[in-house]
Design a protein that fits this description.
Blueprint: E1 6-10, H1 21-32, H2 40-51, H3 57-65, H4 68-90, H5 97-106, E2 110-114, H6 119-129, E3 137-139, H7 141-144, H8 152-161, E4 169-173, H9 176-185, E5 189-193, H10 200-206, E6 210-212, H11 218-223
Parallel strand pairs: 1-2, 1-4, 2-3, 4-5, 5-6
Helix pairs in contact: 1-2, 1-4, 3-4, 4-6, 9-10
Pfam families: Hydrolase
GO cellular component, one term: cytosol
Protein name: Haloacid dehalogenase-like hydrolase
């Protein structure tokens, strides 16, 4: 087993409960572009949103709407709707998430929190949870170059934390895109959690090396199995 020195953890669905917020925000963004709920076009788009959970949101909207102006408008509407949900108290940490980060950092493992959201949305979530200083580092796609499934955020976290090798990195998430990101980055551990968007088959197809019921099981995986 590898000596893990850095854990790169996804947010929504992994450390933060989604509770359908992404889909609700998408509904408003789509409506603003004239896509009515219940229609065939709406259902096609919603299926794509579900399949690409974890990917950079602006990339998703570019795929859905094609035209850059429409994609940007939809993304702005999505962010506004999501922010309203967060401000309404709809954002909550998953059980054991903050404790997991604290335990890993206490054992000498650095922690980065990553997201497919924009920086302003990520900061909104961190502030709502009081997590501004929880991790060593927080990253969004714009901080690294490209979002998932590209390895950019994982490799940026490795560089910024001074981690020596990709084999010393654990990547943890709830989607197939998270798993692909870990694989593309060469991470020593790629762990899927079952608290979010995708089930076991999608996580394994993405390249998960481990499956966990929730983020609360991560310290046992990384610490009790001799990885330190």
């Amino acid at each position: 087993m590898h000596d893990i020195r850095l854990a790169v953890l996804d947010m929504a669905g992994t450390t933060v409960a989604d509770d359908g917020l992404v889909e609700q925000a998408f509904e408003q963004a789509a409506a603003g572009q004239g896509v009515a709920a219940g229609g065939a076009e709406h259902e096609r788009m919603l299926a794509h949103v579900r399949a690409t959970m974890g990917e950079s949101k602006i990339t998703v909207f570019r795929h859905l709407f094609g035209d850059e102006d429409r994609a940007q408008a939809a993304n702005r509407a999505f962010e506004t709707a999501y922010h309203d949900l967060v401000d309404d108290g709809r954002c909550r940490a998953l059980p054991g998430a903050a404790e997991t980060v604290a335990e890993l950092r206490g054992a000498g493992i650095k922690v980065a929190l990553t997201t497919g959201f924009s920086r302003v949305t990520q900061d909104r979530i961190l502030a709502a949870l009081g997590w501004q200083d929880l991790a060593d580092l927080t990253l969004c796609p714009a901080d690294a170059g490209r979002g998932r499934p590209h390895p950019d955020m994982v490799l940026t976290a490795l560089l910024r934390t001074g981690t020596d090798a990709v084999q010393q990195v654990a990547v943890v998430g709830d989607t197939g895109y998270d798993m692909l990101t870990g694989r593309h980055a060469g991470a020593g551990v790629v762990a899927g959690v079952l608290t979010g968007a995708h089930r076991e088959d999608r996580l394994l197809a993405g390249g998960a090396t481990h499956l966990l019921p929730s983020i609360a099981g991560l310290p046992a995986l990384l610490l009790a199995r001799g990885e330190r």
